[in-house]
Amino acid sequence: MYAVDTNILVRLLTQDDPAQAALAKQVFAKTVTIHIPVTVFLETEWVLRYSYGFGATEIAEALRKVLALSNVQTAVPEVLQTALEHLAQGLDFADALHLALSPAKSTMLTFDRSFARKAAKMGYTRIKNL
């Protein structure tokens, strides 16, 4: 089993460094299981958005494709799928992960009005702006 860092995933998705991209592609082409920590998905989204100018829908689609690879595993794939859906709908990915990882019966408290408003529009009833 391999676990990969953000830079491996970014090279795979952006192909911006041909030599590193080829190595990343080789890693993912192997039959060995590849574990991607949730934190790597979070950091990858940030890098793709801020450093490469990718849009939310484009990022969500790219990360969904990675999750769909037969040899890729992560601790909470359902949570990531939910967070990626919300990213594509306009919620910040970190905020989407916060909601998706919170216990079902909890209420998310925040000072971020935009986060609360967007989450409420998506049907979340367990978020409260203080």
Walk me through the structure:
The structure is a single chain. It contains 7 helices and 5 strands; from the N terminus they run βααβααβααβαβ. It is mostly helical and 130 residues long. The protein has a 3-stranded parallel β-sheet. The chain has a two-stranded parallel ribbon with strand order 4-5. The protein is elongated and about 50 Å long. The model has no long low-confidence stretch (mean pLDDT 94).
Indicate the topology:
Layout: E1 2-3, H1 6-14, H2 18-29, E2 34-35, H3 38-50, H4 56-68, E3 72-73, H5 77-88, H6 93-101, E4 108-110, H7 113-121, E5 127-129
Parallel strand pairs: 1-2, 2-3, 4-5
Helix pairs in contact: 1-2, 1-3, 3-4, 4-5, 5-6
Protein traits:
9% strand; two-stranded parallel ribbon; single chain; 59% helix; three-stranded parallel β-sheet; 130 residues; mainly alpha; 5 strands; elongated; Rossmann fold
